[in-house]
Amino acid sequence: PKDSPLRGLNILITAGPTREAIDPVRYLSNHSSGKMGYALAAQAQRLGANVTLVSGPTQLAAPEGVNLVAVESAQEMLDAVEAHVADAAIFIACAAVADYRLAAVATDKIKKNADTMQLELVKNPDILATIANRPQPPMCVGFAAETQDVAHYAADKLKRKKLALIAANDVSDSSIGFNSDENAMTLFWHNAKGELEQKALDRAPKLTIAEAILRQAGELYGERNH
Ligand code: PMT
């Protein structure tokens, strides 16, 4: 589309889960399928952006015309994002990054002799916060997956994480959010006067939700860079 506010912009997107190795055959992960992040990548590409998609392991094929960078762990995802962020106008963090990784990954397969075992975990880097706190950050868009008080947490994250836009996902409803083909969310941002604004996106296919998020992001980008 000629009137697209995203035309010619470099957009960097994270998607999918991350996998944190326990030993050579086991890992910790979560239920993200990558569908939401891939939908954003496909729609951003269709709206004329140059898209780089940094993705954890998924069953999905890269959308046509999108530069896919495949990663496994949170640290690899951060490294890939940092390698591509310099020329990005907009960064969208849609990945469900594992919050913790193993303190030490076993080099050999762990034997199952003991009745109980303990894994020591250490906190992973927050990719979105790392990027938002760079000296010259791209415009940052975050997701919030909450099960309660969604609006409250989202508005707080918007300010604390220095985001332009946040898409709040109520993941307590298992028919939307993780792994499903549809989603519903509420977008939060600050208008030019600094007031909090919000827009509810009713339940729809992830491609439709993705387009609405991108149009809002494009509008905010235009306001900031006119
Ligand atoms: O992949 P699907 O099956 O389609 O599901 C889509 C989704 C539910 C995963 C997606 O819509 C979504 O909500 N993604 C964000 C999930 C999440 O991890 O939210 P959070 O509240 O833990 O994180 C907040 C934000 O910080 C997110 O933008 C996240 O990408 C980012 N983050 C979090 C932790 C971390 N270590 N690094 C990050 O960048």
TrEMBL record:
Its EC number is 4.1.1.36, 6.3.2.5. CTP binds at D99, K109, P125, D126, I127, L128, F143, K157, K161. Residues 11-226 are annotated as: Phosphopantothenate--cysteine ligase. Its cofactor is Mg(2+); FMN. It catalyses: (R)-4'-phosphopantothenate + L-cysteine + CTP = N-[(R)-4-phosphopantothenoyl]-L-cysteine + CMP + diphosphate + H(+); N-[(R)-4-phosphopantothenoyl]-L-cysteine + H(+) = (R)-4'-phosphopantetheine + CO2. GO terms for biological process: coenzyme A biosynthetic process; pantothenate catabolic process. It comes from the Bacteria. Keywords: Decarboxylase, Flavoprotein, FMN, Ligase, Lyase, Magnesium, Metal-binding, Multifunctional enzyme. Binds 1 FMN per subunit. GO terms for molecular function: FMN binding; metal ion binding; phosphopantothenate--cysteine ligase activity; phosphopantothenoylcysteine decarboxylase activity. GO terms for cellular component: phosphopantothenoylcysteine decarboxylase complex. Catalyzes two sequential steps in the biosynthesis of coenzyme A. In the first step cysteine is conjugated to 4'-phosphopantothenate to form 4-phosphopantothenoylcysteine. In the second step the latter compound is decarboxylated to form 4'-phosphopantotheine. In the N-terminal section; belongs to the HFCD (homo-oligomeric flavin containing Cys decarboxylase) superfamily. This is Coenzyme A biosynthesis bifunctional protein CoaBC. The lineage of its organism: Bacteria, Pseudomonadati, Pseudomonadota, Gammaproteobacteria, Alteromonadales. The gene is coaBC. The chain holds residues 188 to 413 of 413 of the full protein.
